[in-house]
Amino acid sequence: MGIDAKTDMKGVDLTEAAAKRIVQILKDEPGKMALRVSVEGGGCSGFSYKFDLVESRNDDDSIIEKDGATVLIDELSLVYMGGSVIDFVDDLIGQSFQIRNPNAVASCGCGTSFSI
Known about the structure:
Layout: H1 3-6, E1 13-14, H2 16-27, E2 34-41, E3 47-54, E4 61-66, E5 69-74, H3 75-81, E6 85-91, E7 94-100, E8 106-107, E9 113-115
Parallel strand pairs: 1-6, 2-5
Antiparallel strand pairs: 2-3, 3-9, 4-5, 6-7, 8-9
């Protein structure tokens, strides 16, 4: 499957705030080209999100591009993230990337762990 076939991302969206923050972060990280978001087993609710800055994409990655920012999600993680919105929140508690996932039936207080 080529890049064109994978750009839909099954409804995963990136907010303007998240795109802006990714661009800012990557400016200070020479050689890094994208933010990778993945889903792993574990966490207090069953699954957890992992965020990494990466230098290249993998063959099975789906791609979100918005306002100069690139997010990569592998095929397995995408199964759990369909319909999600990736956001960047800056509030009194602190700054963080957050994922609003309509597939999650429960999540933990930290916002990085969920169950389906």
